[in-house]
Amino acid sequence: MARLIISADGPEKFDVWKNAFAQVAPDLTVCSWYAPETKSEPADYVLVWTPEKDHYPALSGVKAIICTGAGVDHLLRAPEFPHHVPLVRMGGTQTAQLMADYVTWAAISLLRQARTWAIQQADGTWANNCIARTTAETRIAIMGLGHLGSSVATHLARVGFQVSGWKRSASVLPGVQVYAGQDALPDFLKTADILVNLLPSTPQTCGLVTYDFLTNLPKGAGFINVGRGDHVMQPDLIKALDDGVLSGAVLDVVTPEPLPVTSALWAHPKITVTPHVASEASPVMQADYVAQVIKSMERGETPALLCDPQKGY
Predict the structure, then answer these.
(1) Which of 2, 93, 110, 275 lies 20 to 30 Å from 291 when distance is taken between CA atoms?
(2) Which residue is catalytic, options 89, 155, 228, 231?
(3) Is 276 a residue of the active site?
(4) Using the 8-state DSSP alphabet, how is residue 136 labeled?
(5) How many CA atoms within 13 Å lie on the side-chain side of 198?
(6) Is 231 tagged catalytic?
(7) Counts for the chain of helices (H) and strands (E), in that order
């Protein structure tokens, strides 16, 4: 019988995970990484977020490592990470739905300039900044059409936005105009009244969003970052906002995290910061996804969200 060892969120959250798995997979053996009697075996699965450095040697001999996040770049960058062990990214329907809801909220907030309302309320100022523009008149462009990006794009199209997407290789997504490859990127950016970044963190995408990059967008576009904080050169983003290249930004991911209180992002009048909460599913939903991954691997199947270390996602 498969056994799952949980290190994610530390020993203080083990009971939360144990109770979640008891609801969705009562036959699965679940134990804490931090229990003195727990020793990893070749048939084990391990659920992680950010392992301690001294955990990595024990991870090298397990059947698979499952990450509680959709992004696994922090694991792949660790020199000690065992790249020969299958690494599975977090997925599931709730994760995708949460991300779609978050991006919809962020896009409409930018469309209606809701940040202005928040500042006015804090100051006790009554001023009309009515925006007479609808979702049907607004073009949203999504960088990254993987598991999350495709779900977000499809949802936004149903809401009524004009949606385009950009990815490495060509594909078809109903209701979405897909641009593929590096050569298509300039034309793709021209379609963005609001640009959404959902790319993974790789050597090719790190530092991608610079001032010059943002000038390819229509003047006054909005920007939503739900990919990774290291995609964005923060001084360039602030300059683009101050110069009117961008009209506003919503950032759920930043570098570093937590964001220091001294960061200029906090108080900028055109930036909304949220604390990396866009698509964190409930423990029960995550447990159900993990249990399904384990069942599929026990049947000899390959998980849909198996990481390719060469690609970085």
Answers:
(1) 275
(2) 228
(3) yes
(4) G
(5) 28
(6) no
(7) 10, 12
